[in-house]
């Protein structure tokens, strides 16, 4: 049974099954309140699935709440002798803080990972609000009236100091995650190279296993139901992004999260809930042809066959190794599904007859083996034809990328990069870009020696080859070892050149690669020496290019480096930042405020220049109505300015 508690305005929140009112108005025994608070600590202690974006903050908050257990135990020992107004007020305020904390922690444990990542700044603000409530409650503990021991008092004072520091702390943002989220949610750029970003997001947000994706699907469904039409654009973005991540993972996204349905539809049954055992664990759709695998688990035939054809040899649900790949029809379950559909006046989805997946897979494997063999042909036309076909196959779906790699396609492709033939180089580097979307392939491509050749093509290839070389370096450098390798092999200068002289698409490819590489501290220095800052400033001037946020995000990384601060910190650039803070989009304002804060923390004269350009009133406005992250950055800037009295 769900536990329940009453929130400040009377809202019920879960613990113990009892409905409570405030301590002061109920007149009930204070030991009940203490018991209630102990149950809260027990409940949050049982949470084990905190989302990665808030995990550190969640564990820190839980640890601090657990430190209050000795205090609650000593109060409980006093029992009914706790009767003063000060003691009752303390318990009431502590209870409010606990309830807010539990609601926040529950959301971070059960909520949508994509939503929590998108709204990370807002949730960090909520954590700070909890710290503030706890600090206020602990600030007025009537120790003498409660008879609290000196040892416990010292522990509580330690907690108070920790909460005070936590309220002021601003953790460094995961810039790579923020940049990837920005690109993934962008409607302007939906190229194939973005699959590498989707893969990186899936890993960072822990959405790379079947169980993870199914859990996220359910969480997003609950979010849709809870939000209704509120913030519909953001919710739709999350739904679309989840679908893309599923496709990159090799799963068909067929589950409609929030679409109108007829009485005959089984995608979302309104009249009755589809029994859980009738749903395929992979697609979460009702099964029409259920089959049993070696572990005894049942799946829809088409879904599990696709899983096996992707070279998986484990049971998707249990993770156990499959000792054989035979699929046995589950006639008993199919009969039950048919009977249930008839009883509920529903029709099973009808599937078009087609060639079985096993036979089509065999044909594909034969084709890939033939093409890989042709890569080593002595005739250029045969090699070119094989590369072009493999490029197309590697673009189509994740299964093909795995099959091409497993059948030895990567080593000969890397060798073709070194052929002095521009057409073959162009198609080969693009095929490797597609293959690099798979994480295992990234390591293999780098190990085979592709990076030096890709850098050469980036310097001397055709326009398309240069653009795809930049995208390939970006994809490969999601691995930290490859970031270092690209930097040491002098891959940054040609990327800077592409940023300065390339087409719009080329500049975007270069900017994304340079951002990724600049996450490595040594590469920031290399990028600055290669002259990255002037072309970034030029990008800021060309609003039609649509790359302002990307350029500002790179400049924010460079501003953390002393050489970068020296070169960026010119008055003309400060004026440009102030202009974005004044008239930019909400995201422009957020990024520009972040850069100004980074520069201003080490150089008060730049803040003075920004004030002279009229930034103050716009920072106040952003602190009031900007994005969550922009509000935090604007407040930090205003606080810093207020401490530097000679500035204001």
UniProtKB/TrEMBL annotation:
Pathway: Protein modification; protein ubiquitination
EC number(s) recorded for this UniProt protein: 2.3.2.27
SMART domains: ARM, Ubox
Residue intervals of the U-box domain: 273-347
GO molecular function: ubiquitin protein ligase activity
Major enzyme class: transferase
Pfam families in alphabetical order: ARM_PUB, PUB10_N, U-box
Gene Ontology BP annotations: cell surface receptor signaling pathway; protein ubiquitination
Reaction(s) catalysed by this chain's protein: S-ubiquitinyl-[E2 ubiquitin-conjugating enzyme]-L-cysteine + [acceptor protein]-L-lysine = [E2 ubiquitin-conjugating enzyme]-L-cysteine + N(6)-ubiquitinyl-[acceptor protein]-L-lysine
Intervals holding ARM repeats: 408-450, 449-491, 490-532
Domain of life per record: Eukaryota
Purpose: Functions as an E3 ubiquitin ligase.
Protein name per UniProt: RING-type E3 ubiquitin transferase
Organism per entry: Fagus sylvatica
Record lineage: Eukaryota, Viridiplantae, Streptophyta, Embryophyta, Tracheophyta
